[in-house]
Amino acid sequence: MQQKIQFYTSKLKSKPEIVLSIIFVAVFAFLIVVPFAQMIYTTLTYQSYDLRLERGAEEGAFTFFHYKRMFGSDLSKSLFLKPFLNSIKVGVSVTLIAMFVGSILAWLFVRTDIPYKKFFQTIIVVPYMIPSWVIALAWQLFFQNTRTGGHAGVITAFSGWIFLTGSRMVLSLLLYVLHCITIPIHSFLCQGPCGQLTQNWKRQVLSGDFQESRY
Questions:
Q1: Are 198 and 110 in contact (CB under 8 A)?
Q2: Within 13 Å of residue 101, how many CA atoms lie on the same side as its CB?
Q3: E-assigned strand segments in the chain
Q4: pLDDT digits over 145-177, tens only?
Q5: Residue 90: CB partners within 8 Å, gap ≥ 6?
Q6: Residue boundaries of the structural domains of the chain
Q7: What are residue 62's DSSP bridge partners?
Q8: For 62-99, what is each residue's pLDDT tens digit?
Q9: What is the pTM of this model?
Q10: DSSP at 53
């Protein structure tokens, strides 16, 4: 038994990646799996604040009460359906606008010689470097207004404009995901057949034969 322990110990010392993997899995389970399992357990049991809503309920007893209330009660429209549809609308709007604007920006970066091109290309990747919570706080500071709670944000304070919740979310998410569309299209235009067309187009522009271009 002692020899086996020594054997596995020496094996772990020779492969530190195994030890690191075990540590990371343990940390992952403690920080994510355990809280998630606890959350699921909470949704399947009565809580103290549910006793006034359900007759005969006992705290800690197993139940599907929360799921019935969310998906099958009169409140499901306000608790689930309306927020779900609003999320779909915002997601579709952001995707379509980001694809349109990102495609135009990528084409401008690759096929034109606009001023300050390097500057704009750098700005596009800045969201990659900033944590999501910092961006969320920044947009809240800019778009916050008295109608949606809290104090007036920067835009409302200086211009008096009030961005409603839907438009504010679309603008915020658009500027956050725009680089996710622009960068892949930019790479696509710079590589493969499209990249060859771009290089030919640039050579024709520099040589003065642009009018003979067929693309």
A1: yes
A2: 15
A3: none
A4: 666 656 666 666 666 666 555 666 676 667 667
A5: 166, 169, 170, 173
A6: 2-71, 82-212
A7: 45
A8: 998 888 888 888 888 888 888 889 889 888 888 888 88
A9: 0.59
A10: T
